From TrEMBL:
Protein name stated in the entry: Transgelin-3
Domain Calponin-homology (CH), residue spans: 28-146
SUPFAM superfamilies, A to Z: Calponin-homology domain, CH-domain (SSF47576)
PANTHER family tied to this protein: CALPONIN, MUSCLE-SPECIFIC PROTEIN 20
Compositionally biased region (Basic and acidic residues): 14-27
GO CC term (a single one): actin cytoskeleton
Signal sequence, renumbered to the chain: none
Molecular function GO labels: actin filament binding
UniProt record, GO biological process: actin filament organization
Organism per entry: Mizuhopecten yessoensis (Japanese scallop)
Region (Disordered): 1-27
Pfam families in the cross-refs: CH
Chain ranges passing through the membrane: none
Amino acid sequence: MSTRATKSGAAWSNEKKMEENYDREDAQGTPKHIINWINSVMSGEKDYVECKDTDWKSLCTFLRDGVILCKFINILLAKEEKPKVLFSKKCANSFAAMTNIENFNKGCETYGLAKEFSFQSGDLWELRKGPFYNVINCLHSLGFTANSKSYIPAYAGEITKYADRD
């Protein structure tokens, strides 16, 4: 967004730290594991077009309106015989997309993901690498939750522990 002021001070260092965290997850292959899992789960869905790119901008754009996320969580919820989330299939404006993202987060909680792993709509909508780390963290954790319920296809991501350097 060209109209956004440049970050400085603590906001700049927080954004930088989140970008470094994303880069660390990217080096571990987490975004690739996430998109492979989403593609596997969604493969039988009508009108689903696979995401082939795993760079953060492509993945963020692919998930941005929340439609794929809602369809994805609905598949997981259906397997557990839990109620599906409602969503707008065509997002004419940002409000519909933000509502979809919020409904995805609610669906994740219904599925069994701890609320701490959810993300804010802006983390996905604003197309910024640092905040997108929160989205990756949510989907990564959702994968482990699904694995704990023996969901097939299984999520292939790995748990990696890092020491906080700051």
